[in-house]
Amino acid sequence: MPGKPPRICGCGRKVPAGLRCECQAKADAERKARFDRTRPSSSARGYTSKWERARAEFLAAHPFCRRCGAPATVVDHVTPHRGDASLFWDRKNWQALCVNHHSSAKQSEERRAARGQRK
């Protein structure tokens, strides 16, 4: 079965299906760099040594991903805390996730929810 045909990027380059054009990758990197310049540091967002201790304790008690059962390495806030310290430290708002579910599925869900709130 043949694969998908290449597509034409907005800049006019022919790009293999499923890949990003160099101009798109460069634009993505610039957008992410602009965001990172305005984002507070992790410690300013609450991720301090106190958090690391609480995180390790939580993962010891909840060693598996809540979604797939794989070993959990991330403590995720079910409801994004957005700087709210009481929500940040509320253990009922925490869930153990594997990196895959935290970095892909959960982030996609949060982006979709944020877009829905703007409408």
Describe this protein with a few key phrases:
single chain, 4 helices, 119 residues, two-stranded antiparallel sheet, mainly alpha, 4 strands, two-stranded antiparallel ribbon
Descriptive account of the structure:
- The protein has about 120 residues and is mainly α.
- The protein has helices spanning about 20-40, 50-60, 85-90, 100-119, and strands spanning about 5-10, 15, 75, 95.
- The strands form 2 sheets. Strands 1-2 form a two-stranded antiparallel sheet. A two-stranded antiparallel sheet has the order 3-4.
- Strand 1 and strand 2 form a beta hairpin.
- The protein is extended, with a radius of gyration of 19 Å.
Helix proportion: 40-55%
In terms of DSSP E residues, the strand content is 5-15%
How large, in whole angstroms, is the Cα Rg?
19 Å
Overall pLDDT score: 90
Q: What's the short story on this structure?
A:
The chain is mainly α.
Topology, element by element:
Layout: E1 7-8, E2 14-15, H1 22-38, H2 49-61, E3 74-77, H3 85-89, E4 94-97, H4 99-118
Antiparallel strand pairs: 1-2, 3-4
